[in-house]
Design goal:
By secondary structure, the chain is α/β, with parallel strands linked by helices. It has two domains: 227 residues, 3-Layer(aba) Sandwich (Malonyl-Coenzyme A Acyl Carrier Protein, domain 2), CATH 3.40.366; 69 residues, Alpha-Beta Plaits, CATH 3.30.70. The chain is 50% helix and 16% strand. The protein contains 14 helices and ten strands. The strands form two sheets. The protein has a six-stranded mixed sheet, with helices on both faces. Strands 4-5-3-6 form a four-stranded antiparallel sheet. The mean pLDDT is 96.
Length: 311
């Protein structure tokens, strides 16, 4: 059984999709379509930079979605039936595109708006995030509660894999939590270079705008369910999908549990489509035996076709 994985913000890099677009007409056409939808050359930003422009939340989010969809279109004829899909934060929107629920143009506009709303939220209530390695979930959750007692918000934002977590919230509260996590035995604690406290209560400002946008979009029944970041459950109802995509802004990404959902459903081949291989790496930390491949450039497509194409 095949499962698709779609990366989230942070996977972008200057040059993303350039070789793919040079090798495959469908990939180039995907980037060109996005340029037309947005009214500026997102493709040029992806392929040439500058990096400062590409990492801006309002640009990075559509860039990653477009690259992922470009890969999907290149390999679609060889992919075979898909059982489930999941995307990390932003990537969940790409998953709904892959499932045929969200139109590509609508998704590009929506994640562009999502990024802008998140950037605005971060400006109105500044916050930060930190990666915490080598600590149990329940220990970190207590650390966040203890850090919050002195004021501000700090919550677990990403449950990426066992021992690989991210916290998010007000700057002072996150800094307190970082010290408490070190004292609790965390192997490594690193503040992240982000523009806001994503997946925390600080993103609440962005919810109304995203809810209004999603409420006006047509969404078709999916060809296969998508695993929600919020619940780690497979979702096939588009009404639930709209609500969960909004709730996702202030809820933790339950990625490890989402991968367990896919594994328990019988998925035995995972393909990460788009820039980078972060999700491939996380999956291996969750289940070393999982069969997985990251596909983002022509050599990856060739390797996929050789091993898995139309199988």
């Amino acid at each position: 059984m095949v499962g698709l994985l779609f990366p989230g913000q942070g996977s972008q890099f200057v040059g993303m999709g350039l070789e793919l677009a040079g090798a495959y007409h469908s990939a180039r056409a995907t980037f060109e379509e996005a340029d037309d939808v947005l009214g500026f050359r997102l493709s040029k930003l992806c392929w040439e930079g500058p990096e400062q422009g590409l990492v801006a939340t309002g640009n990075a989010q559509p860039a990653i979605l477009v690259h992922s969809v470009a890969v999907l279109r290149v390999i679609a004829d060889q992919l075979g039936p898909v059982t489930l899909a999941a995307g990390h934060s932003l990537g969940e929107f790409t998953a709904w595109v892959a499932a045929g629920s969200l139109g590509f143009a609508d998704a590009v506009r929506t994640v562009r708006l999502r990024g802008e709303l998140m950037q605005k939220s971060g400006a109105e209530r500044p916050g930060t995030m930190a990666a915490v390695l080598g600590i149990a979930d329940e220990v970190l959750e207590q650390v966040c509660r203890d850090a919050t007692q002195a004021g501000g918000d700090c919550v677990a934002a990403n449950y990426n894999s066992p021992g690989q977590l991210v916290i998010s919230g007000d700057v002072a509260a996150v800094e307190r939590a970082m010290e408490l996590a070190r004292a609790a035995g965390a192997r490594r604690v690193v503040r992240l270079n982000v523009s806001g406290a994503f997946h925390s209560p600080l993103m609440q400002v962005a919810q109304a705008g995203l809810r209004a946008r999603l409420g006006g979009l047509p969404m078709a029944p999916p060809a296969f369910p998508v695993v929600s970041n919020v619940t780690a459950e497979a979702i096939a109802d588009v009404g639930s999908a709209r609500d969960l995509l909004v709730r996702q802004l202030t809820s933790p990404v339950r990625w490890a549990a989402s991968m367990r959902t896919m594994l328990d459903a019988g998925v035995d081949r995972f393909f990460e489509l788009g820039p980078g291989s972060v999700l491939h790496g996380l999956l291996k930390r969750i289940d070393r035996s999982a069969e997985a491949m990251a596909i983002g450039a022509p050599p990856d497509v060739a390797a996929f076709a050789h091993r898995w194409g139309a199988s």
